[in-house]
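Objective 1b: paired records.
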Amino acid sequence: MSGVGVVQVGLARRICGDPSLISSAMTAFLEKIAPLFDFRAMRPVSVRAGMIPCGGLVHPVAAKRVLLVGDAAGMVSPVTAGGIHTALKHGLAAGHAISDFLNGKCEDPNGWFVRSYPQFRVKRLLRFLFDHFQSDLLFDLLLGTKPMRMAAGIVYFHHKGVFTPAERAGRPDARWVDDKTSR
């Protein structure tokens, strides 16, 4: 529930096992931010919680007359947990595909359209390597190196944007461009 007089406070965290850890993690978070924003006396109006699928696309991602996009489809990067650009791009394209289907211009997009969804193969490999072989010491040593700064520049400061130049220009034939950069 959002709106006037409501504040959303949240914590994104991987918690496995004991459900009481969720409450204690939120309590610790509220204690930590209390010097800046003290929400400890407030009571929740609603609680939203759940795992965000980030290990690749969920299955099934589509069925007859059903098409998942964004977080619901698992379009979240397993490395950065980012997915807003992918969700925007494929959500817009899905809207066009659904409109075309409803207007009789194409068949049900649950098959052909889903093939354009990102697979995140490289990012899933990086996530696996990070989960199983991560060392803070090695990472800290590499952080200041030129190759690491170059890699960060490519990942975080690329100029590709959400849409291709043709999509930004509004060319309808560019709606189904396969975004290989999100893989």
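Objective 1b, second protein:
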Amino acid sequence: MEIDLIVRGVCCLKPGVPGVSERIRVRSVVGRFLEHSRVYWFANGGRDDLYFGSADLMERNLNRRVEAVCRIRDEGIIRHIRDVVLDVYLRDSDRAYLLTCSRYQPALSEPDARVNAQQELLAWYTSRPAAVDSVD
């Protein structure tokens, strides 16, 4: 099983180190919107476990701040985050950089096939009618 990390900046982990991190891929995406989702998805033997929250897993945040993570149990929301949100970030080839063992390299594709995750998600959410809460 491969492990994908999608980060918003630099990552100190060195992917591709035999016996340590050879199954880990690191993708950095910095786009128009600097804030980013904190989503933790574990395949867990075919039973998805998905968490989201404020926790930016850095030492200063874990030791000196209050962070929160919440498990998502709704299967529809899990599918949406996995199949829409995480999928588009893993396909980003416009703003993404891939970390090799020594440096970041652009995740380039053909110019007409470029994917900008934040633009795709902005289009996804603004093209749908707003949810209307009904009041009895």
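The mean pLDDT is 85. The beta strands are 3-7, 24-29, 39-42, 49-53, 69-72, 96-99, 104-106.
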